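Structure tokens please, single chain.
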Amino acid sequence: MSARLVIAAAVVGLGLLVGAGAANFRAIGAAPGAGPAIFPALVAIGLVVSGILVGLEAWREARGRAAAAGDVAAQAGPAAFDWRGFLLVAAGLAAFVALVERAGFVLAASALFVLVARGFGSRRPVRSAAIGVVLAAVVYVVFTRGLGLPLPAGILEGVLAAPPR
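Here you go.
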């Protein structure tokens, strides 16, 4: 089995776990079908759909390679594992965990985005950083101001302060 199929299965499994957690989530005073459980449910759906799409792509690619090769021995060879990419993504996750409280959500998520983009082959770190900052800032504003859910501002405390209610 290829590494991409294993990753796809793991993503689908994670989505199912998140979905099970969302189904059991009960907020006091929340209306049925609304409230904080909707976001974990959306994440679960996104994970399952993404995992299925990655799995289908890996399966189609493997079938295409096997048909093009026409050789059973060529079909059996696994793709080389990209340790550099894996380590960059792992470093991004570790950096996010280490930075989120001190530096704040926006900077930690931006660093995560840059490292994951690099791990997936991006050769434009400035563009990745700009996209990461914009996406993280949008998520921060939606969560803190739109939903009233606090995210750590970190060193950007004065810049990202929520308006008084």
